Each structure stands twice: as C-alpha cells, then as structure tokens.
Amino acid sequence: MKQEWLGLTDYVSAVQLQDKIIDRASLVNLLAHSEAGPGETILGLEHPLTITLGKRADILKDIKAPIRELKAKQVAIVGVERGGQATIHNPGQLVIYPIINLRERGIRVRDYVHALEDVTKRFLADYGVTACCRGEEPGLYTIRGKIAFFGVRVKRGMTSHGVAINVSNNLEDFALIRSCGKEGEVFSSLNDFNVKVELEPLFRLWCDYFQTALGLTQDVNRPMLDKPFNLRV
Predict the structure, then answer these.
(1) Which end of the chain, N or C, is more open, meaning fewer C-beta atoms within 10 Å of its C-beta?
(2) What is the mean pLDDT of the chain?
(3) Rg of the chain over CA atoms, in angstroms?
(4) pTM for the full predicted model
(5) d(C-alpha 24, C-alpha 73), whole Å
(6) Which candidate, 98, 4, 92, places its Cα nearest to that of 48?
(7) What is the DSSP string of 59-101?
C-alpha cells in the first residue's frame, strides 16, 4: 500500500487529490477485475487554518467567531461531503487520509471507523498517551481533552477523509467553532504530554499500525491487539 507524505497542503487540493486517486483506482479495478490493493493509498499532511463543515453542520451555530476575526486569521471555510459537523484543521495537526477499497476487502463502514479509532488509540499509546472514546460520536479523548477526530466518506466502495490528530497545533483555534456540534469542548495534543516528534515520522508509525490492522503486515515486537483482529465480515 502506497504511503505519501504531502506536508502543508490546502484543504481543497487535498480533497481533489483524494477524488483523483479514487477515480483512477476505480477504473483500474474495473478494467482488470482486480482485488483490493491497486490504487490504495494513505496520504499524510497538515492543513493551513481551515474550518470544515460536514453534512450535519449548521453554519450559523457552528461558527462562533465573527467574520472580521476569520478574515484577520485568513481562515478558509470549506463545505465537505463527509459526515459530521464543524471541525478545525491547522498547522501542526497530523491529518491522515487512507484511501481503501472497503468493497473489495469486505469491510463494513462501521467496522472501518472502529478500526481507525483502534489504530489511533494504539498509536497514541506508543507515546504513553492513553485515549478512549466517549459516547456515540467518533473521537478520542485523553485526561486533558479531545485529541483525535474521525470523519469518513465512502465513494464507489472506497474511503476518503479519515483522521486528524492534534500534535503541536494551536488549540486556541478551536474556539472559532462549535467543534462537532458541542459547546465547551476541551482539547489536548501530543505536545501536552511532552511528545516532541515531527509529523512525518508520526504519520509513518500510524501507517504501520494501520497496515497491521488490515492484515497486510505483522509486527511481532509491537502487536496490534491482544486478541486476533479481523476486519473482514
């Protein structure tokens, strides 16, 4: 599975790239009648300061900052096709977009989201950070606040969007919105736990865990789970 680190990339360009990869992979699979694998890619990047509005977002309620403040901060506001409400992306936040063929792999969307949560939880544990889910909304929380966010779109059986993990980003930017529709949410980052690592090596480690979860690799020194984990239905 291809891994590609993009660095700082504007949000719209990243969405367009994901769509291009999906379209190309869908064509290859159709012509070759191939199984999952061709075209599957994991993109790693960070975004400039951007507010994204998912399908359930209410722009009047979910954006809290006045227009003049958003203009002064040069905030991009983008409507997206993934589920969920308003989220923030900013430099220093690790964003990961796995483009995976769920249809060919026989993986249900719900199982896929749970796998993203599990992979990220175990990735954070590698740095001594304990995180857990709360309620029904996708996301991971530490004792100091929410640290990871999940939002997935599925097109022609292939995933896009994915995971955002607070690493060294400015957490004060979250005050611009009602994050995921919640008031008074508290946030944390890896920096809060004295983890000082560049984003690209963090991305590569997350990919190792993810490929282990899909059964593409084995890591006997740092196994994914205490019990066997199989995403296939």
Answers:
(1) C
(2) 86
(3) 17
(4) 0.88
(5) 36
(6) 92
(7) HHHHB-S-HHHHHHTT-EEEE-SSSSSEEEE-TTEEEEEEE-B
Instruction: Lay out the sheet containing 50-53: strands in order across.
Output: 76-79, 50-53, 86-89
Token representation of residue 47? 């975004």
62 φ/ψ angles, rounded to the nearest 5 degrees: -85, -20
φ, ψ of residue 147 in degrees (nearest 5): -120, -20
63-86 pLDDT per residue, tens: 888 989 999 999 999 988 766 788
User: Which residue type sits at 83?
Assistant: G
Q: Which of 132, 133, 180, 207 is catalytic?
A: 180
- Supply 212's token pair: 């282990």
Is 3.40.50.150 the CATH number for 2-213? Answer: no
**C-alpha dist (Å) from residue 232 to 104, 137, 147, 210, 224:** 10, 23, 28, 14, 16
Residue 19 has pLDDT above 50, yes or no: yes
* 180 given a catalytic annotation: yes
pLDDT higher than threshold 70 for residue 224? no
pLDDT of residue 83: 63
**pLDDT > 70? residue 233:** no
